[in-house]
Records
---
Amino acid sequence: MEQSQLTQYLPVLMLGVLAVAFSFGMLVLSVILGKKGKRPPVKDTAYECGMVPVGESGTRLSIKFYLVAMLFILFDIEVVFLYPWAVVYRDMLKENGALILGSMVSFLVILFVGYVYAVRKQAFDWRS
């Protein structure tokens, strides 16, 4: 009894349709059954621990913030690639250890050059 590949995806399609229907159903029910009436403007103000908010709520962040975030992701992904390699390195060493070690060292050198470049460009300096 062979099933075609498309019929194997039928439960996934049904789950997707159910999720979309449930989401829109909840939105429609909240509009229908929700409390109607005019809300005072005080209800729509931001609440900051009992203090009156001062200034704009949507302040713009420095580009340094995004640069440091991307560098963090880059070096975090390095560890994600490095850890499994270190775990199975002993098994891989039997087959062709020099090639595997060379590829990992070249990977680390490229990342280290990127790190040195970021330090020289003062990407980690928050004060500027």
Note: The chain has one domain: 5-120.
---
Amino acid sequence: MFKQMMPALRATLVLAFLTGLVFPAVVTLCAQLLFPDQANGSLIRNQSGQVIGSRLIGQMFVKPEYFHGRPSAAGQGYAGEASGGTNLGPTSSKLILGSKDFVGIKQLAESYRSENLLGATDKVPVDAVTRSGSGLDPDISPANAMLQARRVSAARHLMLEQVIALVQQHIEGRQLGFIGEPRVNVLLLNLALDKIKR
């Protein structure tokens, strides 16, 4: 029995060493060398060096003078420990109409139209009324940002053209030219807004 146990024990120790120590160390080293910003969380710091966010995780903005991100199903909004979607399908009446404990697409669309000074029948970008799969999405579509520009310019007493130009400067194209959709990072856009002198 001892003869049979020794090879199994050796194999377990070797595999534990390779997969538990060597492999993670190699992956961490490669990540730090090739993608140091992403490997360290893509953190954004203010002038005094204090971390104020990450380019990869959305934040809740509710004041009218800021662009707002897409709705989040993660906890009370953008909670990393509660990351996840709603798990409601496209035919779910709860997803569309909402319930007493869940805001549906219909209510989100009405709220979006109201806060962005749109008409009752104006079309709303899909990312303005749907939650992302992770609940942590930091980006919105350019169409969503453009529809919010009027509210932001009015709240900040800025020219609409100035805010639209800022949005256009922050549009990121598809990754590698064909993956995903054009997008605007909400945190980076709001930080750029704060730098504008009135």
Note: Strands lie at 43-45, 51-54, 139-140, 171-172, 183-185.
---
Amino acid sequence: MAIHAVGGEQVMICNVKYEAGTRVARHSHPSAEQVMWIVEGDVTMTVGDETKTLGAGDVVVVNRGVEHELYSEGGMTFVEALAPVLRDHVPDPERDLVLGAQGDSLHADH
């Protein structure tokens, strides 16, 4: 997996590349909403009880607290936005965050 991320006080956007055969186990983000825009490749994604195969140009919204999982047989590239910023999704806080007066006080742990 390769990730390029930038976040502020309230939202984070990432460019993510998953290699062929990437599987992300079922999980949820209790504190954050996630929006994914597939740029290249394809993925089979389950959000809640609904499973779909998605490709370039498709968009997925995973609301706060909803369990989801994915598998990309051939690999994929996507852009995702997370709000609020999830600290565990920030590769390097010194490099990847631009914070104002509120700092990271609005960020969540997961």
Note: The radius of gyration is 14 Å.
---
Amino acid sequence: MAAQLKSDLDIDAELVVGGSGELSVWVDDRKVAEKSWGRFPEPGAVVTAVRDAIR
């Protein structure tokens, strides 16, 4: 996911260890994507969510 954000948006993501199986994507203090129902978000959806959050 971090590599996708770097290549698509030229953003250096900070990876923070969370709970087992957790994936949350934050922009500043706003959660923009997360794993739900046991499924990870698609990388393209995360890029779109981050792009929208930084506009």
Note: Residues 3 and 18 are 19 Å apart (CA to CA).
